[in-house]
Design a protein that fits this description.
Jelly Rolls; 213 residues; alpha+beta; 3 helices; globular
């Protein structure tokens, strides 16, 4: 396990059999494609500021049971200790060549981000507080999950706050490895880079709780 306050990574953790089973859920619902299928460069250019992937939603209990302990352990050991009550529907994403998900955050943990659904008490008045991404395969190229954080050069920290330069952005990249589970606060900015070869499958889970204040 790689533990940081910004994110936690369990490498090669989820069994390949489980990953393949989750992929099959998506493949049974999505249009079949070939590993050699490509997207037009013009199409990518026209959508370069949007997320491009094929998605399927699932609420399979065995998946919740498999991933919940990773969230609970991370929530404690990373020092977040957020009040988590439930999880919303999970998303299985398929990224073909050229597909990506641009920089974004999943939520802010505030009242504006709460779900209003009285018929579903599991999500009603709750918001996204912890996000999870599971890499379901690794027989592709590109498609790296990345986080961005802002930091000062060491010498800048010796200056007073008003004399410091604008913080630098630092990008951290997660290795593409089947079964890797990554957990992070939902307000962390992250992206999936364009896939350059093959097909990438991933599982996204969002864990919910009451707003911070």
């Amino acid at each position: 396990m790689i533990r940081k306050n910004d994110w936690v990574c369990f490498k090669d953790e989820l069994a390949k059999e489980t990953c393949d089973k989750i992929i099959k859920i998506a493949e049974d619902k999505l249009t079949k494609v070939s590993n050699e299928e490509e997207m037009w460069d013009r199409h990518i250019e026209n959508h370069k500021n949007e997320n491009i992937s094929d998605i399927v939603w699932t609420e399979k209990q065995y998946i919740y049971d498999a991933v919940w302990p990773y969230m609970a352990q991370s929530n404690t050991e990373a020092g977040w200790k957020y009040d988590i009550k439930s999880a919303e529907s999970m998303q299985i994403a398929r990224y073909k060549k050229g597909m990506f998900y641009d920089w974004h955050a999943d939520g802010k943990g505030d009242h504006f981000g709460t779900y209003k659904n009285i018929a579903n008490p599991k999500i009603h008045d709750h918001c996204r507080k912890i996000s999870m991404s599971v890499i379901l395969n690794d027989d592709y190229e590109g498609g790296e999950l990345q986080f961005v954080k802002y930091t000062h050069r060491e010498l800048e920290m010796e200056k007073t706050w008003k004399d410091r330069e604008t913080p630098l952005s630092k990008i951290e990249t997660i290795d593409n490895k089947t079964g890797t589970v990554i957990i992070f606060p939902s307000d962390n900015w992250h992206r999936v880079k364009p896939v350059t070869k093959g097909i990438r499958y991933s599982l996204a889970v969002w864990f919910l709780g009451p707003p911070y204040v």
